[in-house]
Structure prediction request, 461 residues.
Amino acid sequence: MNNTISRRRFLEMLGLGLAATAVGCKSNKEKGSDLSKAGLGEMTYRTNHNTGDSVSILGYGMMRLPTKKETIDGNEVESIDQEAVNDLVDYAMAHGVNYYDTSPRYCQGHSETATGIALARHPRDKYYIATKMSNFDPESQTREGSIAMFENSLKSLQTDYIDYMLLHSIGGGGMENFNKRFIDNGIFDFLKEQRQNGKVRNLGFSYHGDIEVFDTMLQWMDEGRVHWDFVQIQLNYVDWNNAKDVNTRNTDAEYLYGELAKRDIPAVIMEPLLGGRLANVPDNVAAKMKQRDPEGSIASWAFRFAGNEPGVLTVLSGMTYMDHLKDNLRTYSPLIPLTDEEKEFLAICAHDYLDNKLIPCTDCKYCMPCPYGLDIPGIFAHYNKCINEDNTPRDRRDPRYAAARRAFLIGYDRAIPEARQASRCIQCDQCAPHCPQEIKIPQEMANIADYTDRLKHNKIS
Prediction:
């Protein structure tokens, strides 16, 4: 199979779909039946040597929770579907998942509350809560503002203590920004005090951006200034050796993990699927994976890679739907380590993936809400989907031009209301500084708007 094979032809040849997290899964109404038939074993656990915590290798990332539409004061709004969240958490708990990661910033500020409601229905000693000091805004960077954020996290999560507390997304803005958020206001010392008094059991940080900050934090540990109980890093088979090809500001995960392993710091893994993109890889990559493992999902390759190293404590997955959760449970119950040959295979897949020039959006939604109403992550998701499915025609002489053009334009209008499309971007640039992947969002919006306009008017050369 070559790089030009169409998605339709690929599916016809294989006789099955590639929705990575839905392979072999049934509907929510058949809870548990498909897993037992698949011969699901016991969840793999890793031990945090700092506290003795036995942590499930699959962690639940509460960033991308299921939503529902409802009408309030005559306006249709989208809110978290608490019943669905409860069902997902119940199912995860029943199948061994005991690590739940949230933040005051997730789901436009509602994730901690939804997580707290779902978890409070279970015994407190059956799960670990991870949340973050997400003091990105000036008002939350004061000592009073940051302490209020911490206290509100305890209240929202309905708990007296946080098992895993993170300094959220350090690295952006370099040491100057780090000092503003955590040192000048005394919050770094405050969190260390909370660890001493038991309100925080493990203290760590999540990293994006300037490697100087990452290295400095580990140097502080070497000097005895702080003990990091764990560190959260972005790791997947693309970022392992090619992080800068995805985002020039990122650092190869091989280096990040290696520095943690040297110091015996447990690693928590985020973005094992690069915001879902490694669950829906381009056709040529998917074909190789399916040829090698017809029964496994595309996502399972990425999750096996992310959990493979012995120093990985848990791998976070934002499992919005029950099918996502069930597929990941299969992968990690138990985790089957990668062979050297499989590692080499994934290195080849990483290079093939990078050849497709996708926009590196991870759907974190830090760019949202857009003050002018654009659905920025949705626009990028549609564009990347069309690249994966060979529906971004660049030449009218292409035999698939008409079909691809129709798929792109009709899919765009169905996925994104016109008032929220890229053409409405006014280039205010309020979004770009918040992007952990350093995407030049206004520039990409302009490119997509221009491409869409040329496609509409048949001006593709």
Remarks:
- Residues 98 and 126 are 7 Å apart (CA to CA).
- DSSP finds 17 helices and twelve strands in the chain.
